[in-house]
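Data deposition worksheet. Section B asks for the primary sequence of the deposited chain exactly as it was used as input, without tags or linkers unless they were present during the calculation. Section C holds the resulting structure in C-alpha cell form. Section D is free text for depositor observations; keep each observation to a single sentence. Incomplete worksheets are returned to the depositor.
Section A, Depositor: J.P.
Section B:
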Amino acid sequence: METLDIVNREGRERLYPSLTNPSWLVLRRRREIFRKWLARVDGRNLDVLDVGGRIQPYRPLLEGRIRRYVAVDLRQTPLVNVVARGEQIPLASAQFDLVICTQMLEYIPEPVAVIAEIYRVLRPGGVLLLSVPAVFPRDSDHDLWRFLPESLRYLLRSFCDVEVAAEGSSIAGFFRTASVCLVMFAKPALFRTLLRFTLVPVLNVTAASLEALSGSSNYQFAANFSAFAKK
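Section C:
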C-alpha cells in the first residue's frame, strides 16, 4: 500500500505541479478554476466528499473551512476512509455540502451512475466540482471515456446550476498533448527522464507565453474540462 508520504507528495505535485510535469499547463489552470469556484461555496464548516479521493490534491484549497472530509476510492491509501465504487457510495443521502471528483469518470463504465450517486449524497444547495479529460492518450486497459462540454452538461442535467470551464485553451491543449506523448512513449526510461527535465519545461513555458500573448479563447482542443454543478 502507498505510504502517507507518497500520496501527500503526489497530491502536492497535482496541486502545485513542477515545470517538468507534462500536465503543468492544465493542472495550474484547474487550481485557479477550483479556487474561484470554491469562493462561491457558502459556509465555514463544510462536510466534504472526495470521490476518487486517493490523494486529495484540492483539500488544501479548503483550509479552515472543513468540518468533515470523507474520501471514497476503490484503491486503499492512508487518506481513503471508505473503499467503495463511485457508482455505489455506501453513505446516507443529503449529507455533504461539497463533492470533489477529479479525473476518475473516464475509468467508470457508467459515469451517469456516479453522477446520480453524487447528486444523492449532496444536500440541497450543495456543490460538485468535477474535472474530466477531453484529450489524452489511453493510459490503461480501464480507460473508457473522454468528455466534451455538451456531454458534461448532459451528465449534469439534474443539477440546477452548471458551469463548464476549459482547463486551458487549444494552445495549451496542443502543447500539453505533445509533452504527454513525448514522455509516455519515450524509451528507455533514462531518455524519458531527460525529456522531462529538458524539453518539457520548454514546451510548458512556450505554451504559457503563447496563451498570454494571443489571448486565445479557442477551446476546441482543450485537454481537460472542469465543471461546477449546484444541486
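Section D:
Residues 170-185 form the longest helix (16 residues).
The two ends are 36 Å apart (CA to CA).
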